# Entry
Amino acid sequence: MKKEQLWELRLYVAGQTVKSATALNNLKKYCEKYLKGQYTIEVIDLLVTPQLAEGDQIFAIPTLVRKVPEPIRKIIGDLSNEEKVLVGLNIVPAK
Amino acid sequence: MPAKTTRRTPGRKLEHLPKKLTGITGFDEISLGGLPEGRTTLVCGDAGCGKTLFSVEFIVRGAMKFNEPGVFVAFEEKSEELAANVASLGFDLKELIRKKKIRIDHVHIERSEIEETGDYNLDGLFIRLKHAIDSIGARRVVLDTIESLFAGLQNETILRAELRRLFQWLKDKGVTAVVTAEKGNGTLTRQGMEEYVSDCVIVLDHRIANQVSTRRIRIVKYRGSLHGTNEYPFLIDEDGISILPVTSLTLDAKVSSARVSSGIPSLDAMLGGKGFYKGSSILISGTAGTGKTSMASAFVDAMCKKNKRCLFFAFEESSMQIMRNMQSIGIDLERHVNRGVLRFHASRPTLYGLEMHLVSIYKMIHEFKPEAVVLDPITNLITVGTVSDVKSILTRLIDFLQGRQITVLFTALALKDITSDQTEDTVSSLVDTWIMIREIEQNGERNKGLYIMKSRGIKHSMQVRELVISDKGLYLENVYLGPQGILTGSAREAHKLHERMELVLNEHAQTRKNKQIVRKAKDLEARIGTLRAEFESDKEELINERVEQKLKKRVEQENLGKMERLRGNQRPEVTTSKGKNHNKQG
# Structure
């Protein structure tokens, strides 16, 4: 784990759905646990700003995008599987 | 062909399903009006069969022809790639995008970049689609190809549920949508997309026969509408997709009773004195070197001289070659070309598939608008297709031409000299007039016997004529039918000479006889003369005799009187004169 690394995360949702809320809660939980003080989470509601969907190639909801560090990674779903999220975000190197 | 709703739609008044014209050449004809409006159509087929092109054309034509904005959701290609790909077809996507007529949304799904955890839906796609549709007021939507989702996402259960929702959503949105999908093994699509789309399914196909590929399109299903069910060949050329329907399913082309000259006056004479019907189809068949091309050229020459535009499709010779060769028989085609009334289109049949030939013919006819078309020879087309393919092509071509009142003349090379075989091989049953040229071999030379095998609706001569190709052009000679059979060529000439000799001899004999008669008449006259002379002399003699007898009688009476007087004493003065007479006689 790189200590000085800043994690820029974006969570795309569409309205206040159960799935979105679950995903946001899960994400916050993991970030607090592993990236405390090193992360920013931006929640984008596509119902409000649909034009942003194209930029990050969003087609599924909810989608978590790791903008920084590069490369961009995407995790779709409600982020219920902790291990998969961590692997997907490259927080813990895959065993 | 311009897109138009066909007027032959049966039960049109009852038809409620509104349709949207695609603008794709020929498709609106076979689907009787286009795709179902406000519904989703599935277009499936193998890789490279033209699915993307079909959908792009649907969008582009919609924007250009019908002023309907469209959204193209590309799962496979980027916007720039797509624009570059269709630029070769003359579609300026960038300009259309700038004018907000088209919006291309590239949905990039890369499995390696995506991790799935837990439940999700495709709302992102819906939102993007909705945003795209609303931003330009789109009426048409394409998803190409939605199966990419299956490749990019693992959770099929979610995917299928979401797709079902997507199609319903598109329907609710009221847009006319086209969804493309890959062909599956034994099924229409790999992922069974046909389950979700129930309104209209189109299958594209790409087959290769004899190294020549033919693309075909078929409407498998079209709920709530009549449609052509056949497989229709189509092709992709510089103008996009062209589908060639077997133009008319019915035979209802209008006909004309106007006539056009065949270019050979003696042939016109055989055809009731006027030539062919305008808009009819003529087949000239014959073995190699019988003058088929020459006859076709004579026809073209005659048409061009009347300022009627002609199109000459040559599959064997180049245009220059034909023009040079025809110059040698006194037919100058070059000046017609220079005047712009004649156009040649020479191509090797193997250049492209049959369908492509047909389309290039269609196109040139559309462009040039000729009154007569020549195809020389159609038999060469068999090298790129089967006989039945050629026949189907020609049927369609004839239909197409007849519908436009264009006279068409085919030449066909007959490999066999037997009529019944030719009938099977060629399109003789399709054409209106069939002229056959046969070689007649006799006395060590070959001559060309021309027969009119059939000519629908024209009282035509059943006789064989000899086709003579001279420096001055073509003409027909009567052939001699004698006890030895048909006489042609030098045999006929010999026969003619023989006849002439007989004529001279006859004349000679006649004059001799005439002279004899004159002589005999003269003879007769002479004899009549002598007889008359004889008669005259006889008559004179007889008259003389009678006079003498009379004189004798009088003298005798006088003498008697004198004697009586001498015996008695009579007057003396009378005696003297009478006495003299008496002396004379004594």
Q: What stands out?
A: The radius of gyration of chain B is 49 Å.
